[in-house]
């Protein structure tokens, strides 16, 4: 597991941009409008060129998803990671497993984390108990059975999650 410290508190979270070209302008416009300081990608980026494009706007930290090829790993995406973002420990994994028992399972998998970000399902989700939370931003490109494409801005202040939103993209 990789552990890194990043001082900047504003973070954009994305998962599953499998059809990046169709949503690229909306994603980049959102990043530019929000002046994000970090981007977390929870997997299924499908092409390292997407990560290169996103990294032009803010540093990107990516997890490998089940649809990612070797080029995404060569870019630097890894299976799981833990980051220190603004003093808060954040774990990342692509597939968090079945929804039953997910919160407890991810707490065991990332015992030092305050928040775990995951992707895979394309279903936006926020859940928390006792100073531990999980967050799936959905997908900015492939909504599948969801009504909207989404991404998830986070605000971290003084080592605490101040805000986590699911933002609909047009």
What would the average pLDDT be, to the nearest integer? 82
CATH architecture call: 4-Layer Sandwich
Task: Tell me the helix content.
Answer: 10-25%
Distance between the termini: 35 Å
Question: Can you describe this structure?
Answer:
- This protein has 170 residues and is an alpha/beta fold.
- The chain has a single domain, classed as Purple Acid Phosphatase, chain A, domain 2 (4-Layer Sandwich), CATH 3.60.21.
- 22% of the residues lie in helices and 35% in strands.
- The chain is built from four helices and twelve strands; from the N terminus they run ββαβαβαββαββββββ.
- It has helices spanning 20-34, 48-55, 70-75, 102-109; strands at residues 2-6, 10-14, 38-41, 60-62, 80-85, 88-93, 115-118, 125-129, 132-136, 149-157, 160-164, 167-169.
- It has a six-stranded mixed beta sheet, with helices on one face.
- α2 (48-55) links the parallel β3 and β4 (60-62).
- The chain is globular, with a radius of gyration of 14 Å.
């Amino acid at each position: 597991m990789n552990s890194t410290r990043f001082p900047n508190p504003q973070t954009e979270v994305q998962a599953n941009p499998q059809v990046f070209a169709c949503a690229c302008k909306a994603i980049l416009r959102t990043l530019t409008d929000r002046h994000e300081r970090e981007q977390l990608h929870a997997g299924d980026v499908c092409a390292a060129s997407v990560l290169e494009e996103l990294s032009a706007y803010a540093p990107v930290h990516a997890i490998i998803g089940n649809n990612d090829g070797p080029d995404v790993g060569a870019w630097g995406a890894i299976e799981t990671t833990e980051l220190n973002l603004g003093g808060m420990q954040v774990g990342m994994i692509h597939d968090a497993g079945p929804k039953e028992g997910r919160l407890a399972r991810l707490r065991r998998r990332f015992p030092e984390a305050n928040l775990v970000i995951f992707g895979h399902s394309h279903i936006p989700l926020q859940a928390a108990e006792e100073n531990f939370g999980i967050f799936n931003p959905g997908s900015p490109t492939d909504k599948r059975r969801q009504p909207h494409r989404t991404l998830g801005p986070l605000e971290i202040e003084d080592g605490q999650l101040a805000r986590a939103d699911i933002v609909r993209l047009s």
